[in-house]
UniProtKB/TrEMBL annotation:
It holds the Pfam family EPSP_synthase. One of its GO terms (biological process) is cell division. The active site is at C117 (proton donor). The modification 2-(S-cysteinyl)pyruvic acid O-phosphothioketal is found at C117. Its EC number is 2.5.1.7. The keyword Transmembrane helix does not apply. GO terms for cellular component: cytoplasm. Phosphoenolpyruvate binds at K22, N23. This is UDP-N-acetylglucosamine 1-carboxyvinyltransferase. HAMAP family: MurA.
Length: 418
């Protein structure tokens, strides 16, 4: 099995280009199922999850073509199946996002229940309730969500809690429903705005994406179109934390700074000088040690749960004590025990982790448990003395494009072995 080996001690310096967002491209690829002609998606990141989604769309019958310039064209006109198998859904829970498009377009969908994952139980009840509000008959049988509706009907739907995936699924379904849908307590993440932009390019009528109330006027059909995926704010944040932890100076190209307020504020609080120039973000730490920061994860625009593990790694070597509250997922502290193996001082009590900064970490073999946990271990490895060997990096390949090449380009000593 492949591993990543990091030798700590190099401050990062230089420029790096940020890829398209994993959490935007996955729903967008599912949304292409709604169209009645090919849809071209550009700025597609090379990620394992994108390959899995392409396989899923292919299984449904869609034609997929890929060009070298990070472009992907999905031709949904050949779709002949409305069944998403357990084999694919279990490896990537975002597969559940084909439910809304298939149901809206074909009046039927059978999608395997995704099950939980390392970070929490992750139910899909809110997705199901949303489809029921639009008039679908939904049952759960033999591990599958089975949904039917001759045509979905627009409705007012209030989400019980803020969910990115449920908002996306119901938004996609509503685009082809009869009449108007109003989604209240909708998630406001930038990836939802990007999905709505893509749907609009396909002819959907959507207002209010990026706010808590999204209004959708259903249309009879969606046509082909083209869309460029928004920059990955989590990848960008991960590189900024890497620069801050190593006392370096790094410029990110092709970012969307307006989607990153909470993360940029926390990095400034940690002592970094941040400069934004159009789509470029420069972080300069001038060799200083970061100051510990307190943070609480919450839905956008508050601090993202997908950056919690990386900031925990930074607090491990920061000056002072940082208190981290995780409010989104019930089990998203799996990286703690691995960071402890590197010499960190962290105490967990329920949803709170108290991190006391230590003068230095020491490299050791560690195991990645989930995507962002893997990133936090690389970050810790960049400052640890000696070698940190990270196992189970398949998690990392789900969501980071060429991370070791990008970090090497900034001067890190990192390599993939095995
Ligand atoms: C592919 C993708 O975009 N993944 C992101 C998406 O995941 P995902 O869309 O799965 O996350 P949600 O926003 O739905 O989850 C938020 C919370 O709602 C709960 N919940 C969700 C749905 C539901 O039907 N019932 C329910 O109880 C979840 O268990 C969790 O506690 O948003 C998360 C929160 O920003 C991010 O960490 C993930 O990276
Ligand atoms: C938790 C994440 O992804 P997913 O929802 O695909 O598991 C993530 O991107 O950090």
């Amino acid at each position: 099995m492949q591993k990543i080996v990091v030798e700590g001690g190099q401050p990062l310096n230089g420029e790096v280009q940020i890829s398209g967002a994993k959490n935007a491209v996955l729903p967008i690829l599912c949304a292409t199922l709604l169209a009645d002609a090919p849809v071209e998606i550009s700025n597609v990141p090379h990620l394992h999850d994108v390959v899995t989604t392409a396989k899923l769309l292919g299984e449904l019958g869609a034609g997929i073509s890929i060009d070298e310039r990070y472009g992907m064209t999905v031709d949904p006109t050949t779709v002949h199946s409305q069944v998403a198998s357990y084999e694919l859904v279990k490896t990537m829970r975002a597969s559940v996002l084909v439910l809304g498009p298939l149901l809206a377009k074909y009046g039927t969908a059978e999608v395997s229940l995704p099950g939980g994952c390392a970070i929490g139980s992750r139910p899909v009840d809110l997705h199901i309730k949303g489809m029921q509000s639009l008039g679908a008959e939904v049952t759960v049988e033999h591990g599958f969500i089975k949904a039917r509706a001759s045509r979905l009907r627009g409705a007012r739907h209030v989400f019980d809690m803020v969910s990115v995936g449920a908002t996306e699924n119901v938004l996609m379904a509503a685009t082809m429903a009869e009449g108007t849908t109003v989604l209240e307590n909708a998630a406001m993440e930038p990836e939802i705005v990007d999905l709505a932009e893509c749907l609009k390019a396909m002819g959907a009528q959507i207002e209010g994406a990026g706010t808590g109330r999204i209004t959708v006027h259903g249309v009879e059909r969606l046509h082909g179109g083209s869309h460029a995926v928004v920059a990955d704010r989590i990848e960008a944040g991960t590189f900024l934390v890497a620069a801050a932890m190593t006392g370096g100076r790094v410029t990110l190209r092709r970012t969307r700074p307006d989607t990153m307020d909470a993360v940029l504020d926390k990095l400034t609080e940690a002592g970094a000088t941040i400069t934004v120039d159009g789509d470029r973000i420069t972080l300069d730490m001038q060799g200083r040690r970061p100051k510990a920061v307190n943070l609480t994860t919450a839905p956008h625009p508050a601090f993202p749960t997908d950056m919690q593990a990386q900031f925990m790694a930074m607090n491990c070597i920061a000056d002072g004590v940082g208190v981290i509250n995780e409010t989104i997922f019930e089990n998203r502290f799996m990286h703690v025990n691995e960071l402890l193996r590197l010499g960190a001082d962290i105490r967990v009590d329920g949803h709170t982790a108290v991190v006391r900064g230590v003068a230095g970490l020491s490299g050791a073999p560690v195991m990645a448990t989930d995507l962002r946990a893997s990133a936090s271990l690389i970050l810790a490895g960049l400052v640890a003395e000696g070698e940190t060997i990270i196992d189970r990096i398949y998690h990392l390949d789900r969501g980071y494009e060429n991370i070791e090449e990008k970090l090497s380009g900034l001067g890190a000593r990192i390599r993939r072995v095995g």
